[in-house]
Design goal:
Elements lengths: L5 H21 L5 H12 L5 H8 L1 H15 L8 H9 L23 E5 L3 H12 L3 E5 L3 H20 L5 H9 L1 E4 L10 E4 L5 H14 L5 E4 L6 H6 L7 E6 L8 E6 L5 H13 L3 E6 L6 H17 L4 H12 L5 H8 L1 H15 L8 H8 L15
Parallel strand pairs: 1-2, 1-4, 2-3, 4-5, 5-6, 7-8
Antiparallel strand pairs: 6-7
Helix pairs in contact: 1-3, 1-4, 1-12, 1-13, 4-5, 6-7, 12-14, 12-15, 15-16
Bound molecules: acetoacetyl-coenzyme A.
């Protein structure tokens, strides 16, 4: 295959992602504002896909995709009907100003104490977010060592902020003073909302939800950070499915401003609104979506990451692809840098879920990703993934 220019690499990887974003809008799965906010605040992109598509020109993107579809026959390259329509009409996807009148969400429940279950990277970051916003946080882990790890993670982040002149020792003491760690789930009995961020395994989460259902008071909200499991099914294992909701944070949680707020058919409007209000109160941007594999962001992000691996399999250099993406579209990390941050095991799990749900041959996980996981080359956390650390 002839070597591609940086512009061609960016188009190869980014245009199908734009097409998919239009498909979400066409399906009325999410609003244009939420689709764009999802990618801006979840992944740090300078613009969301629909605004970016408008800036390139819907007809330009449509024509490039149509030419590619003629070559590949891959459905993911076929311009979706709404893209065809907007391109034909010379219209645009953004700029309607519809979001300006969106009502400001209000708390329908009193939320003063937050519970977090888990002690990994996501859980630690989430504990930090709520403690920094002034909430008392009770967090539960399996051992004192793991609980100490959460405090260590937050202390390190706050020390880094102090070193940069962005915080004081007093702020740090106040944040740490709001934390209560426990290895006993019963410590969560009095909290108003629990966020679970434990292993991404339905059996493990189901056991936890049943237990939390017994421990928490009536009216307490149960939120999950799952990125790939069916929240509806989790909700149905409790006696309070209307109080169960998804709050999907992004890595690193203290930095990425997005929370995907995922409602199921059971979630009550009051719980949805309270979680929206809480998300805003802790300085995050909430977007709403339904309980579908990948929600908004992962369903747009991971096919693009998978395509990048397939492009590398066809001969392109990893460093060249990373550089092309950062230079041409201004994403903060190239696809291989991001894969190594997310972890190849996590990426493979998400890609398998997307492939199973949407059944598009183009979504089949790249062979190299399967191989990296089998070899234990999971990314930064193991010292080697696509790049070496
Ligand atoms: N914890 C806390 N704070 C951190 C941090 C961490 N792990 N890493 C960086 N920061 C802070 C820094 O302290 C710095 O703060 P200030 O601006 O207040 O000084 C800020 O973040 C920027 O950091 P740096 O200057 O060191 O680095 P950078 O400019 O290269 O930015 C980045 C780092 C914010 C991670 C940026 O590269 C980025 O936005 N990357 C994209 C990440 C992304 O796409 N995440 C989503 C992954 S998908 C996912 O999470 C969903 C899923 O289900 C798998």
């Amino acid at each position: 295959m002839a070597e591609q220019t940086n512009e061609q690499i960016a188009q190869t990887l980014v245009f199908p992602y734009l097409n998919q974003a239009v498909k979400f809008l066409q399906d009325e799965y999410a609003t244009a504002t939420d689709i764009d906010n999802g990618m801006r605040f979840g992944c740090g992109y300078p613009a969301g896909p629909l605004a970016y598509l408008d800036s390139v020109g819907p007809a330009v993107v449509r024509d490039a995709l149509a030419a590619r579809f003629a070559e590949t026959g891959d459905n993911l390259h076929k311009p979706v009907a709404l893209l065809e329509k907007v391109a034909d009409e010379g219209g645009s996807f953004t700029g309607g100003g519809g979001a300006a009148n969106a009502p400001v969400p209000a708390f329908k429940h009193d939320i003063t104490t937050i519970g977090v279950v888990g002690t990994g990277t996501m859980a630690s970051g989430i504990v930090q977010v709520f403690a920094q916003a002034g909430y008392d946080v009770v967090f539960v882990g399996r051992s004192q060592d793991k609980l100490d790890g959460v405090v260590g993670y937050i202390t390190k982040n706050l020390d880094r902020a102090i070193a940069k002149g962005k915080g004081t020792e007093e702020d740090k003491a106040a944040v740490l003073g709001r934390l209560t760690g426990s290895s006993d789930r019963a410590a969560l009995a009095g909290v108003d909302l629990v966020i679970e961020a434990i292993a991404e395994d339905l059996a493990i989460k189901t056991e936890l939800f049943k237990d939390l259902d017994a421990i928490l008071e009536p009216g307490a909200i149960l939120a999950t950070t799952t990125s790939s499991l069916p929240i509806t099914q989790l909700a149905e294992t409790t006696s309070r499915p209307s109080d169960v909701i998804g709050m999907h944070f992004f890595n690193p949680a203290p930095v990425m401003k997005l929370v995907e707020i995922v409602t199921t058919v059971h979630t009550s409007a009051e719980v949805d609104e309270t979680v929206k209000a809480l998300t805003a109160k802790v300085g995050k941007v909430g977007v709403s979506c339904g309980d579908r594999s990948g929600f908004i962001v992962n369903a747009l992000l991971f096919p693009y990451l998978n395509d990048a691996i397939k492009l590398a399999e066809s001969g392109a250099e990893l460093g060249t692809i990373d550089a092309a993406i950062k230079e041409q579209v201004g994403f903060p990390m190239g696809p291989f840098e991001l894969l190594d941050v997310v972890g190849n095991d996590v990426s493979l799990a998400i890609e398998k879920e997307l492939y199973a749900e949407f059944k598009e041959p183009g979504l089949a996980p790249a062979a190299t990703l399967e191989r990296k996981v089998a070899e234990g080359k999971l990314g930064r956390k193991t010292g080697e993934g696509f790049h070496t650390y």
